[in-house]
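Weekly modeling sync, notes
Attendees: S.R. (lead), two postdocs, one rotation student

Agenda item 3: backlog of single-chain predictions. S.R. asked that every request posted to the team notebook include the full sequence so nobody has to chase files. The rotation student volunteered to paste the first one in as an example of the format we agreed on. Action items at the bottom.

Example entry:
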Amino acid sequence: MMHSRRQLPDAGPEIAVVDVWRIDDGLIAEAWEIIEPVAQAAAHLVWWEPAER
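Predicted structure, as returned to the notebook:
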């Protein structure tokens, strides 16, 4: 698994990228990539915050 932040070309938005690989016999057998603008990624981190009582 790898998490990175990248800038899109031509002054595009900054993106957060998660790459996940399944390795079989030393080779990549499957790969998934999740891409999201950084501005939206931060908003999705609230799931771990404790609920108000």
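Discussion: group reviewed the output briefly. The longest helix spans residues 38-41.
Action items: rotation student to repeat for the remaining queue; S.R. to check formatting next week.
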